[in-house]
Amino acid sequence: MTDTATLAGLDSAALADVLRVAGAPGFDRWQDQIRRTGGCANPIHLTGWTLTKDKTTGETLHHYSTEHEPGGRLRIACGNRRASRCPSCAWTYAGDTYHLIRAGLAGDDRYDIPAAVRERPRVFATFTAPSFGPVHNRPARGCCRCGLRHAEDDPSLGTALDPATYDYVGAVLFNNHAGDLWHRFAKRLRREIAARAGLTQRELADACRVSYGKVAEFQKRGAIHFHAVIRLDGPDGPGDPPPSWATTTLLMDSIRAAAVHRYATVTAPAAGQQPARTFQWGTQLDIRPVKAFGDGSDITEQAVASYVAKYATKAAENTGTLDRPIGNREAPVILGVPDHARRLIEACFDLDPLYPDRRLRAWAHMLGFRGHFSTKSRRYSTTLGTLRQIRADYRAAQERQARGLDDTEPDTVLVLASWQYAGHGHTPGESVLAASIARDLQLNRETARQAMQDQLAQEGVLT
């Protein structure tokens, strides 16, 4: 239940709503629904029914209707990946991303990825944006250019030292073209690998495959950059070992060469008063080999997978912008968006008529970035869809067991259903109670995870 300090901080209307919800006849069932969503902050409401019958005999095996649910509704998780919108659903998404990335690093028999991938050349690389002007920062030594030593939580970090000369237009156009830039880099990387192996592109495809999983992250200055796990396999993917010439050193050299090659650039054409601009990766390219657990390395499989999963649930919120589309130009000012983020958003609005195919206005809340936050090559690992299906199958099996249908052959069962959307979200009081449930679930997860890590460390699996 919600703690006393939380209740004391509520206004009278929210407190009254908490008491109303907690005193309602269906409160226990409402809590059960919210726990099943993982404490979702913005659940989807459904009305409807489902009927399970035996095809052979016509016997009704199970019947469910929302008629007797609290408010006549079933609440299901919203599934939003953004931690700023729904921490609980974002936690699930981050967990899926962690398993996806780690399976491609350590292998997982459940997804037909052998443990032999640990022996493959594989690196963790970070590709940054170029400079668009000096910003407030925290250098390892000395002070910021402004003469101050900023605190870690200083809101001025990442903002322009001189807004009048900062290239806001270039920043949002780079974000907007970052996905295209990655694709050109990936193509060039294969050519660099082939050149070092003395092969043609066709011969490389028959000898080696480049696999990757990556995630996008916004720096405080509002520029997008990518973290990527890149691995070399044989031509048939993770189950096929690469040729002997495919080494980690060769992969790292190829990445460095591809990142700075003139082919690995994208151009935003001239439009109106804007000149043509050519973009490439920034000079801060970081490439490190990924090591297996227990070898004393700072960059391990678990560390990489955790790092990637962390940023899979974040968007541009850490820059001060919004986590939802912007309806009109006045919104950034009305909603109190910081000056640096506001200027980037305004640049998107100003440029939208000049580059209609780039949809800059629609993606202004993302400071122009229009790509997926986490992507992977086809053969890197399993898919998020597969992971979601495994979870759905597990829950379906639990439901069949609870209904006494686990011994019934699926082919002999007919399921009829009718569902309608009936809204979403919580009342103010429900939000407080749901947040409390989410905190309890998170505490339980963290306790269980720590217990597992302690056990693995005791067994020598983790060091």
UniProtKB/TrEMBL annotation:
Per its UniProt entry, which superkingdom is the organism in? Bacteria
Query: Cross-referenced InterPro entries, in alphabetical order?
Result: RepSA (IPR046828), RepSA_streptomyces (IPR048241)
Cite the Pfam families for this sequence.
RepSA
Name the UniProt record assigns to this protein: Replication initiation protein
